Amino acid sequence: MNPQYLEQMENLLGQDFPAYEESLKDKPYRGFRINLLKTNEKDFFSCFSFAYEKSPFISNGYYLLEDAPIGNTILHHAGILYMQEPSASLAVSVLDPKPGMKILDMCAAPGSKTTAIAERMDHSGFLVANEINTKRAQVLKENIEKNGTANCLVLNSAPHDLSEDFPCFFDAVLCDAPCSGEGMFRKEPQAEKDWSKDNIRLCVRRQKDILEHAYRCLKPGGILVYSTCTFNLEENELQLVDFLKNHEDMHMEKTGTEAGRSGFSCGMNTEYARRVFPMDKGEGHFVARMRKDGEEESYMPDVLKSQRLPKEAVSFLKENLQKEYPYYYMNHDKIYAGTSPFYASPHCRLVRHQILLGEMKNHRFEPSHHFFTSAFSDFTKYAELDEAEIMKYLHGEEILKTADSGWTAVSWNGYVLGGAKSDGKHLKNKYPKNLRIR
Questions:
Q1: Alpha helices in 321-424 (DSSP H)
Q2: 407 with 381: CB under 8 angstroms?
Q3: Is 107 a catalytic residue?
Q4: DSSP letter at 186?
Q5: What is the mean pLDDT of the chain?
Q6: Rounded distance between C-alpha atoms, residue 281 and residue 304, angstroms
Q7: Within this chain, domains 89-292 and 381-438 share the same CATH topology
Q8: Any idea where the domains of the chain sit in the sequence?
């Protein structure tokens, strides 16, 4: 390991350094979260057969205690569980999302924290998930689609575009900033190889810009949570000291959790932050909570004007859904729905606006995969498959199954994995090709 890095950690940890150095020999922690939008603990564990232990970092999080491929399970494909390193969930616990809030996850890919926020919001309020990298934004969209939240706007934009479209708007902003990744060394050997003092300085500059625009998006009285998966002072406590000195209306708050250990005292109450090292049963995280002084302002973005929904789409939705979505939006033959108004974001690049229900094709409505993965959707028709049948479905095969003709939700143990079209005797597989098991 890089001698400069080890020297940095010895200076940082002092008497705790030997324990850290010894921890580098151990396997990384593995964990998962239960998606409470789609299930509950009792039902989940009736289908889960692997050894686990409760995580201290978030209420619906667990350690996986065996080397099991849970990413290949039906529960994972159905979006019922999300694989996440345990300490990575601490930032969401500190953010403390609640139904009805307006929340921005500023650096959101691959979606671990966004989906955890969504599970706490329970389809109520408005969630924006942004990722500046285009390829990673697509991964973010897929994970949010699988999660099933019905109130999330996914964007692929730079921080300054976000603050242009949503000034002083959000009740809470999560800034899980790109960092030097020192807490990833056990999981990702490449992170260790890429480490350098120059990279730390580059990350510090990038983080300053992101924090500035996160501040501009936050309404007075709102909460800003800053987190990284790295250990050095420059990207953590010292970054906050610089930020707080430049923004006198921001101040540190206690995180409300005892998980991990206190931050280092560098002034401006940075000891209120929480740190997690491998000795604390997590790979590594830094989390701080700040509040913006002042009273709430009344800024509200414009709402997009929708085309009128065609009668064919209205008829399909009435026939296939037991309850209506509160909001609909149609543009260029594509029809979206959600539990939040469709706010305009003219300076940002749109990836997905809440739920893509489907699109019109030759005066016919064709439902999307997202229509079926939405946890808000309550379908009128289900084709319940056993484990062998559902594995065939995930491979893209046609299923011999008696069902009502037309479109139907395909489920296993009551959990919907996608859609199919029945002729009464066969299910024509509509599971997306890019998601199929090969």
A1: 369-373, 387-394
A2: yes
A3: no
A4: T
A5: 96
A6: 46
A7: no
A8: 89-292, 301-378, 381-438
CATH architecture label of 381-438: Roll (2.30)
Of 203, 229, 266, 348, the catalytic one is 229
CB within 8 Å of 95: residues ≥ 6 apart: 103, 117, 172, 174, 223, 225, 289
Give the separation between CA 136 and CA 124, rounded to whole angstroms. 26
The Cα-based distances of 371 to 356, 399, 418 in angstroms read 6, 20, 8
**Cα–Cα nearest to 153, from 301, 373, 353:** 353
What is the pTM (predicted TM-score) of this model?
A: 0.96
Tokens read off for 161: 């575009």
The CA-based angle 188-191-196, given to 5 degrees, is 160
The least confident of 83-97, 149-163, 187-201 is 187-201
Buried b (16+ CB within 10 A) or exposed e, 212-227: ebbbbbbbeebbbbbb
% of the chain residues with pLDDT over 70: 100
Expressed in angstroms, the distance from the first to the final Cα of the chain is 37
Cis amide bond preceding 159, omega within 30: no
Average pLDDT over residues 121-126: 98
Q: How far apart are CA 302 and CA 352, in angstroms?
A: 17
* Rounded distance between C-alpha atoms, residue 388 and residue 391, angstroms: 5
Burial class from Cβ neighbours inside 10 Å (0-12, 13-18, 19+) for residue 206 reads: middle
CA distances from 238 to 9, 51, 232, 243, 365 (A): 16, 40, 9, 9, 55
**pLDDT tens digits, one per residue of 281-314:** 999 999 999 999 998 776 899 999 999 999 999 9
With a CB cutoff of 8 Å and minimum separation 6, the contacts of 297 are 168, 219, 220
Residue with tokens 């599970």, as numbered in its chain: 119
Q: Confidence class of residue 189 from pLDDT cuts 50, 70 and 90?
A: confident
- Write out the CATH class of domain 89-292: alpha beta
- The Cα–Cα gap between 201 and 176 comes to 17
**pLDDT at position 438:** 84
pLDDT above 80 for 340: yes
